[in-house]
Amino acid sequence: MRDYKANSSGSFRTGKHRVKANRKKQQKKPLNLRKVLHRSLRVAVFGFTGALVVVGLCLLLQLLVASDLFRIDQVSIAGGSQLRQEQILALSDIQTGISTFTLDLELIGRKIAETPWVRSARVERIFPRQVNIVVEERVPAAIINLGYLYYLDQNGEVFKVLGRDDSLSFPVVTGFDRSDLLDRPQLGRERLAKVVGLIENLKYREKFNLTQVSEIHQEKNGGLTLFTLIGGVKVKLGTGKLHEKLNRLERIYARLKPRLEMLDYIDLNVDKRIIVRIEKQVQTAAS
User: Fold this and answer.
1) Nearest of 214, 192, 223 to residue 260 by alpha carbon
2) Residues 100 and 237 placed together within one structural domain of the fold
3) Model confidence over 208-262: pLDDT tens digits?
4) To the nearest 5 percent, what fractions of the chain are helix, strand and coil?
């Protein structure tokens, strides 16, 4: 028999389950139209004010763009040596008298950097009427023969075909193939960087330096060979310990220099030795 007796919480117990007693539904409060209208009016005022501010800013911006106060009257250029300032200005296509707000500074920098001599170009707006252009140019380290003669810069990048008026007073790099550089770019970059490192090593030496080198040749195995400016003597460096090998050469170069016209080659690949071939006879000199 079921027990329908209500417990102290106001529910009825039926077996294992409890059934809550029906409660009287609360009546909803009437809608306060005045409060709703007031809130809507406040939102509308804020929206209208915001729209007026935006329109005012747009009008102010248009006035600034059209104002003579912000028209370019000076373009300063820094960092150019290979390119004249007139050339850089022409590449930028900045005209005096135009509004500074119409300039796309990033686009102008990219346009200037498209010329081979320029590594990077930074364009800055100096209010109210000035623009600064700062150019970083490439510095040739050597001339590389890839079917055509190109400049090789200090970062090991091939960047420009030599023109009629370009300087030839750089060592010539040979033994590289254009197709190999394109097909195996990573290996090509590593080997060109090695050549540039050798050039930097030679540049500041006292007894045997870059001024005494006419050509740097890469062998098929990646080893490097120098050719002297006097006599065209082959100096075999190989692949490793280039700094140490050049040190050995410098220790006896004063004795070899007067006889360069008679030498066939100088081999530095034997550890702690220098092998010199003179008139088809091989002599070994202790370092």
Assistant:
1) 214
2) no
3) 999 999 999 999 999 999 999 999 999 999 998 999 999 999 999 999 999 999 9
4) 35, 30, 35
